[in-house]
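Chain and conformation:
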Amino acid sequence: MKKFLKVMLVCVMVLFAFTLVFGTSKKDEKEGIVIGFSNASVSNSWRVFMVANYEHEVTLHPEIAASYYTDADDKPEKQIADVDDLLVKGIDVLIISPAVQDAVNPAVEKAFDMGIPVIVFDRKVTTDKYTTFIETSNYEMGKAQGEWLAKELNGKGKIVAFSGVAGSGPAEDRWKGAQDAFSKYPGIEILGQQYTDWSPPKAKGVMEAFIQQFSQIDGIWADSGLMSWPALEALKEAGRPLVPSTGEQLNAYAKFVVKNNLRGFIYPFPAWMSRIAVQYAIKAAQGEKLPKYIEIPVDPIGPDEIADYVQMDKSDFWWVGDDQMPEEFLPSFD
């Protein structure tokens, strides 16, 4: 998986290099908007799809003269340095998906204080010095997943929980939402909760440890299919009962649920929100006043709808609904 993601990152950077060179020539002519995109990472396939959507959206706007892209490898200190580099390049607007929600505040505040619009999306920051924040509500996502699982278990059962990157907005907000949902069901016992970085191998290893530790597991709350899918695989390999679970639009999760006739719940977190970030970055650079918060609504996919939702002919690492772009922009998962 790591090798694949590194290859994908190289492809993304080559494509962005072309855009950058083309854009720089236009900027020299004092034309167009220069965007800087500081990305937390492409550490999982959702983020690969997110960058692909961003890249395609940029090509649709002739008013964009150049697009500079950086990847922080999920390291806050690198992301701060990345933003500094983007500011030196003379960007007109900063788009940022923060590695964590507080440590990159200084970089966001620096750009904002310089009068540069800052479009935060996907993951939040804890400063208020930004122009707008775009997300599908992570809190509501975690809460809806928790509510569904509790009701699926008739308000009683032993569950294990999986979160993404500790300290990141999505992981913390989703878990807070889930906890608030579970608090209404005293019969729900949380056996353990672990941060597994949205990494299938890490999630599978943690689930294997849970299986050794607990003789009864009735449900899996995971804020992403990147973790519920391998957790279910671990249960199956151990010969344990397969249980209700939650996730989002990762194809592997949907496939596993359908193939094994399981009860699952999908709450999409669209990778195409990067497109919305580009659109609002243009508005901000042109001087339009933006709302402080923009929520992208989604429709959850219940257990009876997953069979019609899944794309059985696509890769496990495909993200259903995030592939609305020409083929040359689509990630390859061969």
In short: Confidence is low (pLDDT under 50) at residues 1-10, 12-30. The domain at 2-136+270-297 is CATH 3.40.50.2300 (Rossmann fold).
